[in-house]
UniProtKB/TrEMBL annotation:
<dbReference type="InterPro" id="IPR021435">
    <property type="entry name" value="DUF3084"/>
</dbReference>
<feature type="coiled-coil region">
    <location>
        <begin position="77"/>
        <end position="230"/>
    </location>
</feature>
<keyword id="KW-0175">Coiled coil</keyword>
<keyword id="KW-0472">Membrane</keyword>
<keyword id="KW-1133">Transmembrane helix</keyword>
<feature type="transmembrane region" description="Helical">
    <location>
        <begin position="45"/>
        <end position="66"/>
    </location>
</feature>
<protein>
    <submittedName>
        <fullName>DUF3084 domain-containing protein</fullName>
    </submittedName>
</protein>
<dbReference type="Pfam" id="PF11283">
    <property type="entry name" value="DUF3084"/>
</dbReference>
<keyword id="KW-0812">Transmembrane</keyword>
Amino acid sequence: MAGYTLILAILILGGIIATLGDRIGTKVGKARLSVFNLRPRDTATVVTIATGGLISASTLGILLLLSGQLRDGLFRLESIRSELANSQEQKRQVETELNAAKDEQQKARASLQEINQSLVQAVRKQAETQALLQTVENKFQQADAELQKASQQEADLRDRIQSLNAEQENLQNESEQLRNEKERIATELDSISRDREILKQRVGESEQRLAEIEKQRTALSTEIASLESVREQLLISLEALRKGNVAIFADQILSIGVVRPDLSASELRQASTQLLQQAERNARELLDFLPEQAPKEPVVQITDAQFEGLLNRLRDGKSYVVRILSAGNFLKRETKIAIAADVTLNRQIFAAGTEIATLKFTPDLSPQALAAKIEQLFLLVSFRARQEGVLANPITGKVGNFPPEALNDLFKLVSTLTAPYEIRAIAKEDIFPASSLSVELVIRQNGVEIGRFG
């Protein structure tokens, strides 16, 4: 409302001053006054200009006098602009701080929420703790009651301890006596333990020696049985020799062959027939028939049941060594020879280089003792080979042979040795049941091979 009043006053004042100026100018013009030696017309113009300036000055003065805002806008405009810029800068800072404060407020609210959750958990934990505390108090009361009871028991135990102390002194005395006795017994036990170890060692040595002796006894028993069988065969042969010339001895091999695995029934029958035919030819040759006396019928006798039994033993698809043996002693020109078929699984018994037997020798042996021990080594080789399945000579009971010239060379070498040595018999080649056992004798001294013969 004050602004409108000010504008109205200015308009009224301007109109009054304009009217006065016009009248003054008119009077000056009519009076044709001259100021500062000017023409009247120019003087009127100057008066009019002065009147207009006075109007403007009075208007401005009134405005400045009545409006403080106008005075500030006219004289303090730059400072106000500066203050306004500062205010805007401060406003931006305040807004930035306000945004930061809002972020902090959000974080504070999140923290407050976490604190509230922790507070809830703490309240729950406090409740649990209160319940636990109540339980502990109850247990404490129970423990206190038990403590009182234990105190009474402690008093009873003190009395009991006093009585036990006296017993302990007695027991300590007895313990000292027992300790001395224990030391004495421990000394005796140590002595007994040493004697026991010595006896145990001697028993072990005795058992080992006994086992070796048992093995040697078994081997000798087997060898004796074999020799007894040979002796009986020789007696039978001698009896036959007294009556006439023996052409074929008992268990003499008439034919031998290896049946290949996986033969068909017809091939198996053909192979068995060929073995019997070979036995027939060998038997006729051994019986030494005169040309005009040779029988037309087969001399080797085998029944159909025996032949079928032989085929049944060979039908499992494996490889076998089949020997056709004489079933007894037969004289020359006999026309009926009974036979037996020996079937042995054909397998590798010794690989080439396998050690079969070993004997240790001393350099002080006489030639006779050395020969006897070499013969013992050959007996061991023959025994083990027969045990493993090598087929022995039915007449001699032995397997394989050894060249005499190689044996002479061996005797020459060992006669020059002055330290103990050992002789090993090793397989010269792969040995199968029907193979001829071919061995090499290897002489070793102090673990070093010094000769190989065979």
